[in-house]
Structures are given as structure tokens and as C-alpha cells.
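Please complete every field before forwarding. Incomplete forms are returned to the sender.

SECTION A: IDENTIFIERS
Entry label: holo-211
Bound molecule: magnesium ion
Molecule representation: SMILES string

SECTION B: INPUTS
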Amino acid sequence: MNTFPAPRPKAVIFDLGKVLLDFDYGIAIRGIAENSSASAEELRVLIDQSPLLYRYETGLISTREFYEAVRGAGFKGTLEQFSALFADMFFEVESMVRLNQNLRLAGVPTYIFSNTNELAIHHILSTFPFFRNFDGFILSYEHKSMKPAEPIYLAVEEMTGLSGDALLYVDDRIENVEAGIRRGWQVIHHVAAPQTIEAVRHKLLIGEVMM
Ligand SMILES: [Mg+2]
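SECTION C: PREDICTED COMPLEX
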């Protein structure tokens, strides 16, 4: 057993959904259903954690093809209306956004590592200023690979120029965290902001004053 303390990580890799941004697909689905001949339940099956969303978030289909599939199921609005309804379901997790800001003030590079899609990212970029405050973005639809598959973890290592325990990775999904462990990364399984902030501070050896 390795009893030596892990070295200080050189960069922090943040998952986005349920870590820096909370989200609720129910909001998007209700809005789409109000402009559709399909029921909210039918739309939920089509959109939320579905094969269609998986294809969209791995970049196998375009935004227009995603929209056309929902239109085929009964949505009556334009692509622009769909884009606004689909993406408007995010809320900032303020304490975690502050953590990122403080890490950057302390000179620690930070990155976004997310299973996501073009509509969500365009909306988030135009709505949340904090989203510009990262060194880089590793997004599933741009890499045609989704967490927890290994190729997108290799993309993180390539973009950061770091690997193994030089990376500290924060994600709320255990299967994603476990894939990080297999790469030798330091990890925090995110459950709630106070514990994550304390764990990051401990691993980065940053004092209370900074965080
Ligand atoms: Mg997440």
C-alpha cells in the first residue's frame, strides 16, 4: 500500500453538470411540450438520458438533426425556438463557481470536462460569465467520445499536458470518477459543495484565507 501523501496537483479538472451548474431537464421538456403535439412524458423518453441525446452529445448528429428528431415527434417551433427552450435549464452553483475563481487567483489552471452538447454550451457561454474563466474545455460532442470512455480522458491529458496524479478531477458520477482513478488521476467524488471545497483546499494545500 502506498502510504506517501499524493503530490500537489498541477491542474483541477471540473465536471460541469451537478458540479458547477445544476440543471433540470424537466424545465426544458415542459417548455418543449407546450409547443408540441407530444406529451411531456413522450418528450422525456425521447430527450432525457436517451439514445438520441447520447448520439447528440457524442457528436454523431448535428444540432439540426437533433432538432429534426424532436420536430418529428411533434414539436411545432423553429430551430431557434427549440434552441432557447432546450438549453434554458441551468443554475449556477455559486460556491463552486467561487472555488474555481479562487483556484485561478491562486495560479492553479482549471479545465471543464463535460458530457454535453452544442446547444447547452452556446447557451451557457452567453448566460454565465464564469464559464469563460477556464484554461480549456474538453467537451464530449467535440471529441466524439463520452465519459467514462477512455478516449476523452486521453483528450484531457493531451490538452493539459499533464497526466496521473498531476491532475485533480471533480465529478459527481462515480463511474466517471472511477475512470479517472484508472488513469492514475487524483479524484474527488462530488456529493456536496462544502465537502468538495474542503477536499480541494486540502489537496492543493491552499489555506482558508484563499478559499
Ligand atoms: Mg455531472
